[in-house]
Automatic annotation (TrEMBL):
InterPro entries according to UniProt: Aspartic_peptidase_A1, Aspartic_peptidase_AS, PEPTIDASE_A1, Peptidase_aspartic_dom_sf, SAP-like
Limits of the Peptidase A1 domain: 64-380
Disordered: region residues: 432-475
Protein name, entry field: Acid protease
Catalytic residues, chain numbering: D82, D276
Organism: Trichocladium antarcticum
Record key words, sorted: Aspartyl protease, Disulfide bond, Hydrolase, Protease, Signal
Bias-annotated ranges (Gly residues): 447-461
Species classification: Eukaryota, Fungi, Dikarya, Ascomycota, Pezizomycotina
């Protein structure tokens, strides 16, 4: 059920949908593959239909976007790829994109013209979607979408009547954070219409300098990772920090492999983290961030944004920031972990004690299969040595446990001794240097996680327009936009195993 919107419909009633001339395009093996290209800002590379959509790294890794086709005849629309929210919507209001640079950025993308589509079916329902950064007031419509080589019909999507701080619409691929579908999301419809066999996709964002990643619905590519895919159970909403149902798993350690091969690693910890492709930076508990920052003596802390600025030559060095999930280590090369924007170099993590996130600065180094049906994430170190697509079927073992064909790590690293405990993540370390300059301008990070709609409501009626933000995921602390973070000792100790 959709919440009703009382305002007048945004559009003139659509032309009655003539029978859709486009056939449902489905590959026999139920795999929809979409190349991921790391591209500089603007200039999306348009690929042929056979290759599916193009997922591109925009604005130095500020966001990852996909091009999909909407309506009949199809209009190409660029959307942020977001594993942190379930709703898909279009047409942000550029006049509220905040800074002037963002207005131009926002205006550089095509908007969907609903009057030109014969397959649109406008509803009287709407909603207010609240994100970590920004929000959108949308009206729901039924439309035909083409994603990669697959066309789905009658997908409910939002068309924004007004939005703030979000320069692009969003393709949402998360489960409903409130634990209950309000309507069939894109992934649900792909399964319902037989395009893929189960609600699962794999995501390989790739490094900032690499143009060969992919988003694959219903399949994995064993030529894109090293070793086994570690199966990590998704935490239940009850186990997750704010009770939202998200792609949460338990991170059991952090570490650093220094350029000289020295290995630092925390003791065993148990921190719930959720994997959010819509998050530009990662957000981890204060004490963990301070422990990692301790390794960069030149880091300058900006209390206004929460960012740690670094000398840019650090991004050229070998070495990795390491994340552990049981036996599995994901090592993020410094070059991918440091966010390089407008000549500034910013450490890829900020402090957040309430809702820890591994965002793009982590995902660039990971190959992740998101299996909503079985509530597991499967994770491995990303690499690129071959192309070998394997379909994800249905049932409990739908995600094939295939070893990755790749062997070499992206940069030379030593082998860590598990749980060596020589990186102390329990000590408070005040930042030693303060950043006093002004940072990058006109950059909106995020959008960050979608609000946990309905989670406090005991699964009652769908929330009417205007109440959607009630259980918003946090105080809307966009990466770096919030106040300086409080000491997280209590939280962190709570998560220590
Ligand atoms: C639009 O949706 C309504 C309600 O589901 C349905 O009755 C109607 O047939 C649809 N119209 C078109 C053109 O798809
Ligand atoms: C959306 O964001 C804008 C800008 O931050 C804010 O003024 C507005 O109140 C928000 N709207 C909702 C419904 O949260
Ligand atoms: C990084 O490691 C590679 C391979 O060991 C080496 O060739 C390169 O010189 C190193 N780069 C730096 C900046 O140390």
């Amino acid at each position: 059920m959709l919440p009703l919107i009382l305002a007048a419909p945004l559009f003139a009633p659509a032309v009655a949908a003539a029978s859709d001339a486009r056939q449902l395009v489905t590959r026999g093996d139920g795999i929809i593959r979409s190349p991921v290209n790391a591209l500089p800002a603007s200039a999306p590379k348009v690929l042929g239909r056979q290759n599916g959509i193009d997922v591109w790294n925009q604005n130095s890794g500020t966001r990852y976007a996909v091009d999909i086709e909407v309506g009949t005849p199809p209009q190409q629309i660029t959307l942020i790829l977001d594993t942190g929210s379930p709703d898909t919507w279009l047409n942000p209001s550029c006049k509220f994109a905040s800074a002037s640079g963002n207005q131009k950025d926002c205006q550089s993308f095509a908007q969907f013209d609903a009057t030109q589509s014969s397959s649109i079916n406008v509803t009287n329902s709407g909603d207010i979607l609240v994100y970590g950064s920004g929000n959108a007031t949308i009206q729901y419509v039924y439309e035909t979408l083409t994603i990669g080589s697959a066309t789905i019909k009658d997908q409910i999507i939002g068309i924004a009547k007004e939005s703030h701080l979000i320069p692009l619409g969003i393709l949402g691929l998360s489960p409903p954070p409130g634990g209950r579908n309000e309507y069939p999301y894109v992934l649900d419809t792909m399964v319902d219409q037989g395009v893929i066999k189960s609600r699962a996709f794999s995501l390989d964002l790739r490094g900032v300098d690499n143009k060969n990643g992919a988003l694959i619905f219903g399949g994995i590519d064993t030529g894109k990772y090293i070793g086994d895919l570690a199966k990590l159970p998704m935490l239940s909403p009850r186990e997750s920090p704010r009770g939202g149902d998200r792609y949460y798993v338990t991170m059991t350690g952090v570490g650093i492999t220094a350029p000289n091969g020295e290995v630092l690693q925390s003791e065993a910890i148990g921190v719930p983290v959720f994997l959010d492709s819509g998050g530009t930076l990662s957000q981890l508990p204060t004490l963990i961030v301070q422990a990692l920052v301790g390794f960069f003596p030149d880091a300058e802390y900006d209390p206004k944004s929460g960012f740690y600025y670094l000398p840019c030559d650090i991004a050229e060095e070998n070495g990795t920031i390491d994340f552990f999930f049981g036996d599995k280590a994901i090592r993020v090369p410094l070059n991918d972990f440091i966010w390089q924007i407008q000549g500034f170099c910013i450490l890829g993590v900020v402090a957040e004690d309430e809702e820890p996130i591994l965002g793009d600065t982590f995902l660039r180094a990971a190959y992740v299969v998101f299996d909503q049906d079985n509530r597991n994430l499967h994770i491995a170190q990303a690499a690129n040595c071959d192309t070998n697509l394997v379909a994800i079927g249905a049932g409990p073992d739908a995600v094939p446990s295939k070893k990755g064909k790749c062997t070499a790590l992206p940069t030379a690293t030593a082998t860590a001794t598990a749980g060596s405990g020589n990186l102390d993540v329990s000590a408070t370390r005040a930042p030693t240097n303060t950043f006093t300059g002004s940072g990058p301008t006109d950059v909106v990070v995020g959008p960050g996680p979608g609000a946990t709609k309905g989670s406090g409501s005991g699964g009652g009626d769908p929330q009417a327009t205007g109440e959607a933000g009630k259980n918003a995921a946090g105080p809307g602390r966009a990466v770096g936009w919030g106040p300086a973070v409080a000491l997280g000792l209590v939280n962190l100790l709570g998560w220590m195993l």
